[in-house]
């Protein structure tokens, strides 16, 4: 079976958060394959755990994917501060030999990065044709500084290749494809015929034993928190993901939440934490605060990772129009306001740059939603996109991002333990990825085994198949499939 078919059949999606179906993403021909091991969100430790303990499987998959997409360069990018992870990957590269794509090129974490191919023209790259190609592709480790958001796809492409992905573009536009390190681990499983049914998750914050939990998709957040020793707080909020970009859930919502393929972190915080309060700010209050307090300092623009790549996104100008104008739909004819469509929602403007505590990211998200509802596409002008010369001096240190987000107390936690979840019941959402939800192929009363296909991607749609994370009996089929383990 061809590797691309194995990936599709295993239901693999991007595990860094977006959940784009991996089989579709890797059906391409590129010059650069970049494996994203930056794990830039403060507090998350999952990818680092996988690099230390599953390095061989990651390297094996990276070499196979590099050959499949015809890459000339295959890079695993990780922070130079990740010394144990770097050592584990180097050992895996040497140990795997031809299977992995060959040994590393010998650059240590103190290295300045790659030399070959930097800054060259992108050329034209067809969008399909992911067949296997003969030969091996050397894999190189690429050292990154500890800054946020180093793991953003477009930021990472520039760090490695010095090519700027155009506004509203994708890495394929400059001859690259980026895949998360955890996704590579899942691809290695797919190569062995194992579907994606379990997720590695960082559980941290106000818990008694911060840990990595390996949980079947559909496991309750409550069970994952229990495996980390339980919450220190009687009532708490939870961040699904990282503190900069993750979704804040209140106590009741968190107790009802379940693990999906894209769950990367469960961060337990005090119910009245700053991030919880910020997430509840209503639009009317955001507008009043912007009108009264925005001083047009432009720090949000100066530190915006997209603006620093040369993209025409200026949050301070959007804030000025939002503060002075009517409701959001009335602003959509303004070309400056429409630039909100290229915001990556990293949160630098909101949680770090703004000295007045305003919410540019949330306003950009609201504008983008209204543009989508109104059917207004982002119109990119033709230009030669170049990064800001000041970019190097304006990178946000990750630890400082943690401090401004109010989670510094948890930043230095060493997490290297694994807890295996064995839930008696799973509640599996049919919407696990970007694109269309899967369609159930089981019904109430069916007995299923672990790894069995339970929902299929609709024909000719963007999506991914879903498999059972535990064996048992299907007890409910709605927008979710509930499976109960029964003897």
Automatic annotation (TrEMBL):
SUPFAM superfamilies: alpha-helical ferredoxin, Nqo1 FMN-binding domain-like, Nqo1 middle domain-like, Single hybrid motif. It comes from the Bacteria. Residues 284-314, 333-364 form the 4Fe-4S ferredoxin-type domain. InterPro entries: 4Fe4S_Fe-S-bd, 4Fe4S_Fe_S_CS, Helical_ferredxn, Ion_transpt_RnfC/RsxC, Nuo51_FMN-bd, Nuo51_FMN-bd_sf, PduS, RnfC_N. Pfam families: Complex1_51K (PF01512), Fer4_17 (PF13534), RnfC_N (PF13375), SLBB (PF10531). Residues 95-129 are annotated as: Disordered. One of its GO terms (molecular function) is electron transfer activity. One of its GO terms (cellular component) is membrane. Residues 98-116 have a biased composition (Gly residues). The keyword rRNA-binding does not apply. Signal peptide: none annotated. Keywords: 4Fe-4S, Electron transport, Iron, Iron-sulfur, Metal-binding, Repeat, Transport. This is Na+-translocating ferredoxin:NAD+ oxidoreductase RNF, RnfC subunit. It comes from Enterocloster lavalensis. The lineage of its organism: Bacteria, Bacillati, Bacillota, Clostridia, Lachnospirales.
